[in-house]
Each structure stands twice: as structure tokens, then as C-alpha cells.
Specification:
Helix content is 49%, strand content 7%. It is built from 18 helices and seven strands. Strands 1-6-7-5-4-3-2 form a seven-stranded mixed sheet, with helices on both faces. The longest helix is centred in the first third of the chain and has 21 residues, at 74-94. The protein is globular. It starts with 6 loop residues before the first strand and ends in a 6-residue tail after the last helix. Bound molecules: zinc ion.
Length: 481
């Protein structure tokens, strides 16, 4: 029997990702969903600044990196296939595409000798050419999207610990709109640009029709089988298990149930993949990317932020190389730290892209409307975390599963603010350049002490004091975006 990876997930959001019964989960999700809706109503001048994605020292990438069947090529071939099948829908996703970014990519594809070599990077640098837009094809069995002009991984080379030039892949159930899948892929590409292109990323999005869900499971399992990861039959059995909290099939059954209820709840997770040298994501329907679903019109910008959150888990996983499940689990460390950093980094990226006028404007025309409001989002997170900490009578150290403050708001939102606080005090490069850069060689407690100059217990006390300050003082440490 295979151990299927670590589960780091985002239930939209809150509590569960692990414990709790199914019905408890559903209740929590509905509540959270209400909160998400109310959050989006308020306004705050998005303001200025820009260039979030920018920089990108392309130097890092190309040279040493991988190996691996450079032939890959799914990308280039795309066009022919897509025009036929996708006809009406392609436009949004692919049109803008072809022209601009293509140029850089082929260079990457070329070189490349045989095997995986490559010095593991210490600092997780920015990656090289990442396309601006995804191209999508309807393969019949599923929809597949990847960066325009970028190669996709073939085989199962070990890319952990590096940045690379392969495109993240969004693989979506065939009952979903191709533009929804394109929005998922575009969000993955932005995240790759921002935090480094790690991989290999396989992001599976389940839909509401059972036959389409079964087909996507077959696509997943055929890949595992072809890449000598897992036998097809065992993969299909395990991935189709029901009831199960985290089988692939459960993301479909949850989606179908939520649609029937008219609830825009969602669940998605980084479900391991180290043993297969990939990052295995599964998601329920991101309703905000397709407003034709009758679930109360959630905005697509929230789903973009969610994809960013998930991608950041891949960045975290990319920072430690062991294949040992227990070691990986230990290095993901406290729930507040892993989920809080993913939550905060995702919010920050969404906020910056909004300020640059990019986030909402690049959604396809079928996505739910509504801007992303960084300050409001962060204020809501802070208020909810404070309320939960008052209720539970504990602090960040109690937000692990089974702890007395084991709630989504305490762990995710409290954790997000813990990272706001740490960043304000120590600088915005410490998380990546010190903590995650040293995590492979160190225990997380030591990496934390190295990064932040104190033990985590000392930090808990300090952060508790911060939570008792007046709101205006707390909000004043948010970075301007
Ligand atoms: Zn998460």
C-alpha cells in the first residue's frame, strides 16, 4: 500500500483539512463561505504601486537544469488540436497568448542533456521564462492547460529543490468550461513567476459529473502507471475510494453536493507527490471561475488567491528533499506556519496584482466579477483570528490539529498575521531566503531561530501581545502594495 503524501490543504476554508467528520466539514465550509461573501462587499482604494511579478533573474533557470526529455512539447503542438475542439471557448485563454512570451521558451527546451544532475538551490531563486498565458486543449477525456510555449515534464525526473522551466499543468474534468481550466493555469503561472517555477506541478480540478470525474482519475492513473509511479489498478481503486476525505473522487462528490445545495464551498489540497517527483494537487470546482454555476456568484479573484495559496505549498515542499514521509511531515512544521505563510503570501500576491491592474482583468469573461481588496481581506482575517483566540483562550501554539485553538481562522488567519508580523519585524526576504533556504539542512525549530532570532515559544508570547493592540496599530504593519 502506498502512502499518499502529506496533505496540506485549503478548505475554503477553515477547520478541517484532516480531522472532523464529513458533515462537520460541510458545516464549517458553509460558514466560511458566508464569510468570504461578506468580505468581498467592502471597499478600499486599491492604490498604486506595481510590478509584483517583475524581476525574475532568468539566469538561474536555464543552464544547469534538467535533463528530461526536452522533447516534451505538448505546448507547441497545442494549436492544431485546440482550434478544432475548443472553438468558441479557446479565445479567452489562448488568444492573447501566442504572440508575446513564446520567444523565450524554446531556448529552454533546447539544450538539456540527459540526466537530472543539478545542484540543489539554496535560496529558491526566481525562475526563468514563465509564460504570461496558458494555452488549453480539450483532450476529450479531460482539459489540459499549460504555459504557452513552455515544455511540460515527461517521465518523472526529480525536480525538487530547484526551479525549472517546465510549465505547471492544470488538468480539468471534461465537464468544466475550458476557460475555467485556463484561469486555473494562469494563476499557477503567476505564482510560478512570483515565487519561482517549481515542479513538476499537476493540478487536477474535478467537476460535477461523475463520468468526467472517472475519466480524469484515469488520466491521473495512466500517468502514474506510465511513469512507473504506481500501478494503474491500485491507483484507480485508491483514487476512487468513497467515502473518503481526500480521494480524488471525493473532490467530485463534494463539488456535486455543494452545487446541489447552491453553496460555493470548495476544497483543494497539495496532496503530496514527493514519491513521484511531482506536486499532486486536487481541487473541487473553483466556482468563481465560472459564473454560470448557481452558487451565489463568488468572485474569480478569490479563486485566483486560492490557487496562489496552493502553489505556495509546492514552494514549501520544494525546500526540503527527503523522500521520507515522516521527515517531510515534520519539516512542513506547525500548521499555523505552513498555512499562515501560504495564506499571507497568496493574499499579498493577489493584492499586488490587483494594484497593478492585472488580477481581475485577466480572468476569462465567464468568471465571477469582484475586485480583490487586500486590506479588507487582511482586516477580516485579523478580526476572525482574534475572535477565535478569545474563544479558545489560547495562542498560535494551540492551533495544531486537536489543539484547543484548532480552527481554520486561528491557524490560517492567525498564521497569516503571524507572518505579517514577522515580515514587518525582520524583512520580507527572511521567510524564503533564510527559513526555507535552510530547511533542508536544519530542523524547522532551528531554521526559525536562525531566521527570526528567537524560539517559536518566545514568538508566541510576543504575538499574543500584538493581538491585544488596537486594530489601527495592528493594521499599520501591513505592507503597502
Ligand atoms: Zn493550505
Amino acid at each position: 500500500m502506498k502512502k499518499v503524501g502529506l496533505l496540506v490543504c485549503l478548505l475554503l476554508v477553515a477547520s478541517a483539512c484532516g480531522g472532523a467528520s464529513d458533515s462537520d466539514d460541510l458545516a464549517a465550509l458553509r460558514v466560511e463561505n458566508e464569510m468570504l461573501k461578506s468580505q468581498t462587499t467592502t471597499t478600499v482604494a486599491p492604490t498604486t504601486t506595481v510590478a509584483p511579478t517583475t524581476t525574475v533573474a532568468p539566469t538561474t533557470t536555464v543552464a544547469p537544469i534538467t535533463t528530461v526529455a526536452p522533447t516534451t512539447s505538448v505546448a507547441p503542438t497545442t494549436t492544431a488540436v485546440s482550434t478544432t475542439t475548443v472553438a468558441p471557448t479557446t479565445t479567452a485563454v489562448s488568444t492573447t497568448t501566442v504572440a508575446p512570451t513564446t520567444t523565450t521558451a524554446p531556448a529552454t527546451t533546447t539544450s538539456v542533456a540527459p540526466i537530472t544532475t543539478v545542484a540543489p538551490t539554496t535560496t529558491i531563486p526566481y525562475s526563468g521564462p514563465v509564460s504570461e498565458f496558458a494555452v488549453c486543449t480539450n483532450e476529450g477525456t479531460h482539459i489540459q492547460c499549460s504555459g504557452d510555449g513552455m515544455p511540460v515534464v515527461e517521465g518523472a525526473p526529480d525536480l525538487y529543490g530547484k526551479v525549472n522551466s517546465f510549465s505547471p499543468e492544470a488538468l480539468c474534468a471534461s465537464d468544466l468550461d475550458i476557460r475555467l481550466c485556463g484561469d486555473v493555469a494562469n494563476a499557477l503561472l503567476w505564482a510560478a513567476k512570483e515565487w519561482g517555477n517549481v515542479g513538476a506541478i499537476e493540478y487536477y480540478v474535478m467537476g460535477v459529473e461523475e463520468s468526467a470525474a472517472d475519466s480524469l482519475i484515469e488520466v491521473f492513473c495512466n500517468r502514474r502507471d506510465e511513469r512507473n509511479n504506481w500501478s494503474r489498478s491500485e491507483c484507480i481503486n485508491r483514487s476512487s475510494e468513497l467515502p473518503s476525505e481526500f480521494s480524488m473522487k471525493s473532490y467530485h462528490t463534494n463539488s456535486a453536493a455543494w452545487l446541489a445545495e447552491g453553496s460555493a464551498a470548495g476544497t483543494m489540497g497539495h496532496n503530496g507527490g514527493r514519491e513521484w517527483n511531482m506536486h499532486n494537487f486536487t481541487s473541487s470546482v473553483p466556482w468563481g471561475f465560472d459564473s454560470s454555476y448557481d452558487v451565489g456568484s463568488p468572485p474569480g479573484t478569490q479563486d485566483q488567491q486560492t490557487v496562489f495559496h496552493e502553489y505556495f505549498h509546492a514552494v514549501q515542499h520544494n525546500s526540503h528533499l527527503s523522500y521520507d514521509w515522516d521527515e517531510r511531515d515534520r519539516k512542513m512544521w506547525h500548521r499555523w506556519f505552513a498555512e499562515g505563510s501560504a495564506d499571507y503570501m497568496a493574499a499579498l500576491l493577489a493584492g499586488r496584482l490587483t494594484s497593478a491592474g492585472l488580477l481581475e482583468s485577466r480572468l476569462s469573461e465567464i468568471a465571477g466579477k469582484g475586485a480583490y481588496e487586500f486590506v479588507n481581506e487582511m482586516t477580516e482575517k485579523l478580526n476572525r483570528a482574534k475572535a477565535d483566540f478569545i474563544n479558545c483562550g489560547g495562542n498560535l501554539g494551540d492551533t495544531g490539529r486537536g489543539g484547543k485553538c484548532d480552527t481554520g481562522d486561528a491557524a490560517y488567519s492567525g498564521g497569516a498575521w503571524a507572518h505579517v508580523y514577522l515580515e514587518d519585524k525582520h524583512g520580507d526576504d527572511v521567510l524564503m531566503d533564510v527559513f526555507y533556504a535552510n530547511l533542508d539542512a536544519m530542523e524547522p525549530e532551528d531554521a526559525f531561530a536562525l531566521a527570526y532570532g528567537q524560539t517559536v515559544e518566545e514568538f508566541y508570547v510576543e504575538f499574543e501581545q500584538f493581538l491585544s493592540l488596537p486594530l489601527s496599530q495592528q493594521l499599520s504593519i501591513l505592507p503597502s502594495i
